Amino acid sequence: MSPRSSAQFEEMREEKKALIMNTALEHFSDYGFHATTISHIAKHAGISKGLMYNYFKSKEELLAAIINRSLDEIYRSFNPDRDSTLTPDEFENFIRRIFAIFRENRQFWKLIYRVMLQRGVYEHLSDDPDATFTVGGIPLMEYSAYMAKLMSDYFIRKKETEGPDFDPVTEMLMFSNTLKGFALTYIFAPGQYPDEYFEKMVETLIRKYR
Amino acid sequence: MSPRSSAQFEEMREEKKALIMNTALEHFSDYGFHATTISHIAKHAGISKGLMYNYFKSKEELLAAIINRSLDEIYRSFNPDRDSTLTPDEFENFIRRIFAIFRENRQFWKLIYRVMLQRGVYEHLSDDPDATFTVGGIPLMEYSAYMAKLMSDYFIRKKETEGPDFDPVTEMLMFSNTLKGFALTYIFAPGQYPDEYFEKMVETLIRKYR
Amino acid sequence: MSPRSSAQFEEMREEKKALIMNTALEHFSDYGFHATTISHIAKHAGISKGLMYNYFKSKEELLAAIINRSLDEIYRSFNPDRDSTLTPDEFENFIRRIFAIFRENRQFWKLIYRVMLQRGVYEHLSDDPDATFTVGGIPLMEYSAYMAKLMSDYFIRKKETEGPDFDPVTEMLMFSNTLKGFALTYIFAPGQYPDEYFEKMVETLIRKYR
Amino acid sequence: MSPRSSAQFEEMREEKKALIMNTALEHFSDYGFHATTISHIAKHAGISKGLMYNYFKSKEELLAAIINRSLDEIYRSFNPDRDSTLTPDEFENFIRRIFAIFRENRQFWKLIYRVMLQRGVYEHLSDDPDATFTVGGIPLMEYSAYMAKLMSDYFIRKKETEGPDFDPVTEMLMFSNTLKGFALTYIFAPGQYPDEYFEKMVETLIRKYR
DNA sequence: GATGAATGAGTATTCATTCAT
DNA sequence: CATGAATGAATACTCATTCAT
Predict the structure, then answer these.
(1) Rounded average pLDDT over D43-54
(2) Which domains does chain C have, with CATH numbers?
(3) Bases in strand E with any atom closer than 7 Å to a protein CB
(4) Most CB atoms closer than 10 Å: which of B170, C150, D43, D205?
(5) Which residues of C touch D179 (CB under 8 A)?
């Protein structure tokens, strides 16, 4: 009986961890953080309650881990050209990617909307230095600011082609609000968006704001 | 010496009830339903825990009472012309009223967003026949459907003046998503909307969708 | 406005007191002591909760007052010839009176069976010197002992006429157990005793034990 | 090191469960259901309050479990010859077994008398389909009816040998009331029944009603 | 690593009792 | 005398977390 290599152990650990996180994501996003119990997660993941604490220090840390993992996934699938400005084609692509991400990670977005809107959960997480969210290694706040700047610059540059009546700030707010509103509806009531209208929303946003 | 008159008692009751509801609204909307404890509400209202139960049968009923009270307030301030179609002027007025309501009842909208996004709370309330929400006496669901129809008809009629390229469904979705997205941001991060941009959003929405 | 005479006041007090006690007896005997709330009693009696405390120091004292009142009623209706021995006719009459009392005070007997069987209630009452039960001014314990002696003597004397095989202690136990068992059933499931069998029980007991 | 086997866990569970049930039986039967608190049970069993809920869903379920366990114990020790009629010998044996059961399960009978006499507890239990009592798998009501029929038939058959003056219904009532009355006294005041009189009661009942 | 029994602080809720009017 | 708003201690029950095995 040769002992398993540490790589094998590591792999097993990662698998278990992923199992727990996936199960927890489902429950947190469907029932909310408070209404989800560790017992439920454990039962649905087919493990014991105690085992969870082998992988995560607390319920809060489990949540933070889930959020960070998804942020990274999104970041990787996004992969914007940092340190540069957005061309109209890149902007169009950006919109398409955003919508694709909504579609592919609906569970996660549900979690974000539910959890981020809950002072008490979010703030508790924010207080804990170990629980700061990062996107591709960058603190979420910083990353968000960067993305906002990218957007903002794009709309400011647009003013040059659209003329003096074009108010870049208002336009950007219109754009981002539409996006947020769509996300909200699509995530919580996807039935309202059959594929046809989903696509139309994408094309309309591109037509109006590119 | 002489005992309080029943009118005096009634007045005391109404005042206390309002105090409890206001305190609870603040807590529910800031921390969410589950994270808010009766103890916290009582402490902040300066009353004993038990007293709350003299006025509300349960935490759930307290929440329902708060929601219904605000729905009625909104309804009264809204006072739409039922059973009619919307003229462009009325539509414009509708938008202005909506934004005014966002501004005046921010705390309540926070509650709505938080609670509605928490499966388990909302559904529990819906199960309880005593807890059905009403707007001016009309069940909320019915009222919502009516408002949606009013909107929908407006956009369909717009097609006549806007020409064949105008897709009423997509336009309405764009409009309502922008509204939702704005509400979300304004409610949870009002700092992003100084008065200047708040007004600009109103005017832009009117200009684009009227 | 001449003030009411103190006799009038006293009469009013007594009426209110009786109202409260009657209402409470009904509730205590039907639902038990713990399950009955002061609020329920007050509501059913049509008075305020506070008023009860004008007449009785506590819930326990209210119970004790009810029990004592009924004990006295029973005593008066009983009126046995103290300080004497029982003749067979008196014994027969005693049986008839007992059954009549069961019939007339069923509510009270229900209370007795429920409360007396509840250590915690009864013992609490016994601890309180003000709450000792009395029958016609005599402490209940003393009165019970006296009655037991009367019975006992009766059965002992019976031995003389019944012969040496007659065991007075066993006979008395048989007799008193039958009485208790009948009371228990009659009080909690009176439907099992239509008038016909009620009478037959009386006659049979007399025939067998007189 | 190695985790406990599931058999080990099962054994631990059964032991703890029995400990809790025994402790609770003692408290319920001595103080009544309402007056007994989970805290008291836990303290006397030497466990935490929470642990009880690992084994029983509620206080009511705990009570139901205790009652059912005892009913089964009694049933097994009883083992009457179902589907047959009672011979005098069997009837005599039946009486002896009943008395033996009173003696062996006094705590349980105390519970039965207290709980059954507490409207609100018993009825609550009856409402809950999961809490229906069963005796050897047979619903209690059905079992009771069967036993009553067995008795009834016995007394009816007795009429043939006892002559026309024998009233089977009255005789059966006398018999069952004596039994109930004895049980009541023996259970709540066993001091009144030294072994000598206990035995005499048995023999007398047999002599009189066999 | 894995288990689940055990803990205890916390939660909603009830209710006898008090007291200002 | 009468009221009912107000209190607070007590109760059943929950659940994140710990720990012996």
Answers:
(1) 96
(2) 1-56 (1.10.10.60), 60-209 (1.10.357)
(3) 1-21
(4) D205
(5) 177, 181
